[in-house]
Amino acid sequence: MVEGRIIKALSGFYYVQTTDGVYQCKGRGVFRKKKITPLVGDFVTFDIDDNNEGYITQVKPRTTELVRPPIANINQAIIVSSATMPEFSTTLLDRFLVLIEAKGLKPIIFITKIDAIDEVTRENINNYKKEYESIGYTVELFSAKKPTELEKMKQYFSSSVSVIAGQSGVGKSSLLNVLNPQLLLKTADISKSLGRGKHTTRHVELMEVGGGLVADTPGFSALDFDELELAELPHCFPEMRERSDECKFRGCMHLKEPKCAVKQAVESGDIASYRYDHYVSFADEIQSRKPRY
């Protein structure tokens, strides 16, 4: 019996990393009967046959699990946004943050292509950086062309298992290639007509970067809240979560309720109005979702 972590899943095979190397494994039929699908990131035990191929016998309990991408036991999510091409979007960033908060992961925000913007745009990006940092998020601005900045990026990967996420074309694969040139991940030029990159990442795989493991994931152009219930949404905004006890009504949704501490904080400028607008928009989206049966 051998133990290891699945670092790649491809065409029905699971590639399990152990202290002795990586073994190609298949899942036992018992998993299908129990409706258990081994995921990249899973800690597993497996048997090795005479041909040095493995058969997974057990999937150990998970600390975290994501559906898109299908991956387990991640402890932080690095969201890559770009300052330009595609344009920086607080709406898209907040969608990522809500989904990551809902999974109990630590979010870290990277804003790329800082070298490709003018002074006015740079000032706007700096203001957003300060606002997100005031909420409690870690935000880093950087250019992939500056080696000193890239060295600083590596510290965020050290000793962590991260998922890297962001809109297509923001430079996720390019960033990972610079941090670890041995990866040679495929990158695509920005489509000028679409203003975004083509999807280049085809499968989920954990790769070594900066002393940790990172999952490069397929680029997203849209994110929905299919798994999120309305009652969970206020907990996915830290600045609302910390004020909820000050609201008059327990379980306040910060929408139409009177004497709401969150709405008061928006009026006083203590909560950014665009963050609250996104919250209301996301709440509407969840409420208008078709029921699941």
Automatic annotation (TrEMBL):
Keyword Metal-binding among UniProt keywords: yes
InterPro entries the UniProt entry points to: G_CP_dom, NA-bd_OB-fold, P-loop_NTPase, Ribosome_biogen_GTPase_RsgA, RsgA_GTPase_dom, RsgA_N
Binding-site positions, GTP: T112, K113, I114, D115, G166, Q167, S168, G169, V170, G171, K172, S173, S174
Residues the record lists as binding Zn(2+): C247, C252, H254, C260
Localization of this protein: Cytoplasm
EC number: 3.6.1.-
Record key words, sorted: Cytoplasm, GTP-binding, Hydrolase, Metal-binding, Nucleotide-binding, Ribosome biogenesis, RNA-binding, rRNA-binding, Zinc
PROSITE patterns: ENGC_GTPASE, G_CP
Domain EngC GTPase intervals: 72-221
Co-factor binding details: Binds 1 zinc ion per subunit.
Boundaries of every CP-type G domain copy: 63-223
Main location: cytoplasm
EC top class named in words: hydrolase
Any Pfam family: RsgA_GTPase
Cofactor(s) recorded in Swiss-Prot or TrEMBL: Zn(2+)
Family per similarity comment: Belongs to the TRAFAC class YlqF/YawG GTPase family. RsgA subfamily.
NCBIfam families: ribosome small subunit-dependent GTPase A (TIGR00157)
Subunit structure: Monomer. Associates with 30S ribosomal subunit, binds 16S rRNA.
Functional description taken from the UniProt entry: One of several proteins that assist in the late maturation steps of the functional core of the 30S ribosomal subunit. Helps release RbfA from mature subunits. May play a role in the assembly of ribosomal proteins into the subunit. Circularly permuted GTPase that catalyzes slow GTP hydrolysis, GTPase activity is stimulated by the 30S ribosomal subunit.
Protein name: Small ribosomal subunit biogenesis GTPase RsgA
